[in-house]
Write a structure and sequence with these properties.
Elements lengths: L3 E2 L83 E9 L8 E4 L4 E5 L1 H5 E6 L5 E6 L1 E2 L13 E2 L2 E6 L5 E6 L23 E6 L4 E7 L4 E6 L5 E6 L4 E6 L4 E7 L4 E6 L5 E6 L4 E6 L5 E5 L5 E6 L5 E6 L4 E6 L5 E6 L4 E6 L5 E6 L4 E6 L5 E6 L4 E7 L4 E6 L3 E10 L1
Antiparallel strand pairs: 1-20, 2-31, 3-4, 4-5, 5-6, 7-8, 9-10, 10-11, 11-12, 13-14, 14-15, 15-16, 17-18, 18-19, 19-20, 21-22, 22-23, 23-24, 25-26, 26-27, 27-28, 29-30, 30-31
């Protein structure tokens, strides 16, 4: 263990064009010095990716968001069906979703028939889908009135920029991190160039029943990923430009403490003890282990570049980590924190997910426009399929045995993963 501390992109597809922006996340592979990297979003032609994205960062949506009223058609008490063992199947594309106009940074299924896509500042919305049909359930603007939810000190209307989501176990609420709050403080970028002038941001909570935002939670600067402890008493949020982890009491919505980490923390995985947490500090090339009871944090691994996403096997015996710059998937024994397996991925692995039975892993390869399926035990690659352009998010839907891929260029690709090999 090398360090110890303690503590109390993107682009929009619109009429076939991509919006050039430097505030989107870790989207440049040309930089070799991660400490000095400016990470622009996908660019077009000869556009300069380092230009400030004043035209796109705070732009109003090109189309008026439509709030749908048919979430009641998706029963909340659905139970996942019996599906074939995931490592015994292959997957085939069944659907492409590109309406309404979306720029999905992530897609997350709730295991109860819904999936939420987060469209950053390029569309200023989240979109919710019925995973059984692929139908749009709701398009919700990322605007909120903090005072109406008991939080003072903000304008009457605040606009966010949705990044990632974490669902409650019952599938009734989704916590959505907001990259920045529009017109509050200096512009936010992934290289954190504006320092302390960037204002702290927030997490908005989405309610399936209310079909809207029902909580405003203050966190740090440029929050990226979040995860709930298994008992759902705490929400954990990585603050990209504060280099730390916010620990939120979910009952009060108030931050309990910050845990200092290192440069640009992102992925989070929480052990069943509700105390032990793994966090990827992406630009520091470090995997951290955090004790929520003491606030102590240690680096446990630093031998590969750009750890981005971390997930646990269903039994929490194995931790899986994608290393984006190393094109690597690594498995760790959570008892010893030792490496027990590695696999080469496609170019620039980003998000991953596991099948409901834990026998398969799904990894999106950002610069290869593909998604890979691995045997979770052997880390042997089972299949690789083409996706839309710039796949950045992926989720497994236990209700249908389908894989949903978020393509940052402006679409969702859906695969059936129940096909016998």
């Amino acid at each position: 263990m090398r360090k110890t501390t303690s503590g109390a992109v993107g682009a929009a597809a619109l009429l076939g064009l991509l919006i050039v922006s430097s505030c989107a996340e870790e989207d440049s592979r040309s930089e070799t010095d991660s400490d000095a990297a400016t990470i622009p979003g996908p660019s077009v032609g000869n556009a300069d990716p380092t230009d400030e994205a004043s035209d796109s960062e705070d732009a109003e949506p090109e189309t008026d968001p439509v709030e749908r009223t048919d979430t009641a058609d998706v029963p909340s008490d659905l139970e996942p069906p019996d599906l074939p063992e995931a490592r015994s199947t292959t997957f085939e594309q069944t659907q492409t979703i590109d309406e309404p106009v979306i720029t999905p940074k992530s897609i997350v299924a709730n295991g109860r028939g819904l999936a939420i896509a987060n469209n950053m500042m390029y569309q200023n919305s989240v979109t919710v889908y019925d995973t059984r049909t692929g139908d749009l359930v709701q398009e919700l603007p990322d605007t909120i009135n903090p005072a109406s939810l008991g939080v003072d000190g903000y304008p009457e209307t605040v606009q966010g920029a949705p990044v990632e989501a974490a669902w409650t176990e019952d599938g009734q609420h989704a916590y959505v991190s907001q990259y920045r709050l529009a017109d509050i403080g200096a512009p936010a970028y992934d290289d954190c160039r504006n320092g302390d002038a960037v204002a702290p941001s927030a997490v908005f909570r989405y309610s399936v029943e209310d079909q809207g935002w029902d909580q405003f939670i203050e966190v740090g600067r440029v929050p990226k990923y979040q995860a709930l402890t298994p008992d759902e008493s705490r929400l954990l949020v990585t603050n990209w430009c504060d280099f730390d982890l916010s620990v939120i009491d979910t009952e009060s919505g108030v931050e309990e403490m910050r845990v200092p980490l290192s440069s640009q923390p992102r992925g989070i995985a929480v052990m069943p003890d509700n105390r032990t947490v793994y966090v990827a500090a992406m630009y520091a090339n470090e995997l951290w282990k955090v004790d929520l009871d003491t606030g102590e944090a240690n680096v446990i691994y630093s031998d590969a570049e750009f750890p981005r996403h971390v997930i646990l096997s269903p039994d929490a015996d194995v931790l899986y980590v994608t290393f984006s710059r190393s094109d690597l998937l690594v498995a760790f024994d959570t008892e010893s924190d030792e490496v027990i397996g590695t696999a080469t991925t496609g170019r620039e692995p980003r998000t991953m997910d596991t099948s409901a039975d834990g026998t398969a892993l799904y990894v999106v390869n950002y610069y290869e426009d593909s998604v890979s399926k691995f045997d979770a035990g052997s880390l042997e690659e089972i299949d690789r399929r083409s996706t839309g352009h710039l796949p950045i998010g992926v989720t497994y839907d236990a209700m249908t045995g389908s894989i949903w891929v978020a393509n940052y260029s402006g679409s969702l690709t859906v695969f059936d993963d129940t096909i016998t090999r």
